Amino acid sequence: MNDSMKSNPIELVEAVCQRARGDEELKAALLEDPGVTLQRETGLTIPAGWDLAASESADGAVQVELVNDEIPEQYLELVQGGREIHPEGSGC
Q1: Which of 2, 9, 46, 76 has CB 3.0 to 4.6 Å from 35, enough for a Cys bridge?
Q2: Which among 5, 60, 50, 81 has a CA at the least distance from the CA of 38?
Q3: With a threshold of 0.90, does the pTM exceed it?
């Protein structure tokens, strides 16, 4: 399945991180500004106030994580896998 056919935000982010292993330019962009890079690469809308951090492991893999102390209640279903959203941010 290619990235454009995925609708689960976690799968989309994982696909970008996987692609970054073989694409130094993408990896650098993720490490510098993960929110903007993920929006550009996936079409996802990163909610205002969500702070993302990216790091590179010793084997060259890039991980992106949410660093907020709390996830806003209206987004809990998304991160728990209870609901799908479309990458275009058009709803469920």
Answers
A1: 46
A2: 50
A3: no
